From TrEMBL:
Transmembrane segments: none annotated. It comes from the Bacteria. It comes from Pseudoxanthomonas gei. This is Transposase. PANTHER family: REP-ASSOCIATED TYROSINE TRANSPOSASE. Gene3D superfamilies: Transposase IS200-like.
Length: 144
């Protein structure tokens, strides 16, 4: 379970363009090498993810690359320079499948606890491998 925050906790992801760019990069499986992103949520000033590490790269290398790609895209789109993310991240290892699913539920419910929406389906910046095929239309609607 990983958390990384924006530089000086700026609420950059209240902006749809910045949030969409970050979501696109964080959710692209090609950016995770042999690791697997199980679920994630992008909040106005931070990102939470549940990552299953592979053997090719460390978590620090993976996050460094994804944060770097997202920062370049966001800065280019906004016509700005400077840091988007704070250096580093906070992580916590999970050991059992049951605790992984419980952590995923907790993680994606962050927008509800932050009172950003009344229903999770109304929040556009999250995803989970545990969404069923029937939920695919909800997933695509969120991404607009």
């Amino acid at each position: 379970m990983v958390t990384t925050v924006t530089h000086q906790r700026q609420r950059l992801f209240l902006d749809w363009t910045s949030a969409s760019l970050a979501c696109s990069i964080f959710s692209d499986a090609r950016n995770w090498a042999d690791a697997r992103l199980l679920c994630w949520v992008l909040m106005p000033d931070h990102w939470h993810g549940l990552v299953e590490l592979g053997s090719l790269e460390s978590l620090a290398d993976l996050l460094g690359r994804v944060k770097g790609k997202s920062a370049r895209a966001i800065n280019l789109a906004a016509g700005r320079t400077g840091p988007v993310w704070m250096p580093g991240f906070h992580d916590r290892a999970l050991r059992h499948e049951q605790s992984v699913v419980k952590a995923a539920r907790y993680l994606v419910a962050n927008p509800l606890r932050a009172a950003l929406v009344d229903r999770l389906g109304d929040y556009p910046y999250w995803d989970s491998i545990w969404l069923s095929a029937e939920d695919a239309d909800v997933r695509s609607e969120r991404r607009g």
